[in-house]
Automatic annotation (TrEMBL):
Source organism (scientific name): Ancylobacter mangrovi
InterPro entries given in the database record: ArsR-like_HTH, HTH_ArsR_DNA-bd_dom, WH-like_DNA-bd_sf, WH_DNA-bd_sf
PROSITE patterns reported for this sequence: HTH_ARSR_2
Pfam families: HTH_5
Ranges annotated as spanning the membrane: none
Lineage of producing organism: Bacteria, Pseudomonadati, Pseudomonadota, Alphaproteobacteria, Hyphomicrobiales
Protein name, per record: Metalloregulator ArsR/SmtB family transcription factor
NCBIfam families (alphabetical): HTH_metalloreg
Secretion signal, residue range per the UniProt entry: none
């Protein structure tokens, strides 16, 4: 069984929303002000702030405030638990498919006899 990582559910919840994924894609280019992040979404600022809160709670972004300007930056290493879990799942399923393939080949050979 894959290792349990307590923040894994938070990560997948944060990544489940298209608006949050688009915000992360924008932040992958570099830090941005909250107002700059909200413009392309067409959402009101309080709604965008809730999305940012989810991303920050999952550890995917960090925010800082300078006067009245809040800036967000991506924290790429926060994706590591999700990447690790997905790699573990891939290994499990590749192993299962390899066993299925071996079984199918063996069954086909036995039928050919």
């Amino acid at each position: 069984m894959a290792k349990h990582h307590p923040e894994l559910s938070l990560l997948f919840h944060a990544l489940a929303d298209t608006t949050r994924r688009s915000i992360l894609a924008r932040l992958a280019e570099g830090p941005a002000r909250v107002t700059d992040l909200s413009e392309p979404t067409g959402l009101r600022l309080p709604t965008v702030m809730r999305h940012l809160s989810v991303l920050e709670e999952a550890g995917l972004i960090a925010t800082s405030k300078d006067g009245r300007v809040r800036t967000c930056a991506i924290v790429p290493e926060a994706l590591e638990p999700a990447r690790t879990w997905l790699d573990e799942q891939r290994a499990v399923w590749e192993s299962r498919l390899d066993r299925l393939e071996a079984f199918a080949i063996k069954a086909a050979k036995e039928r050919a006899k």
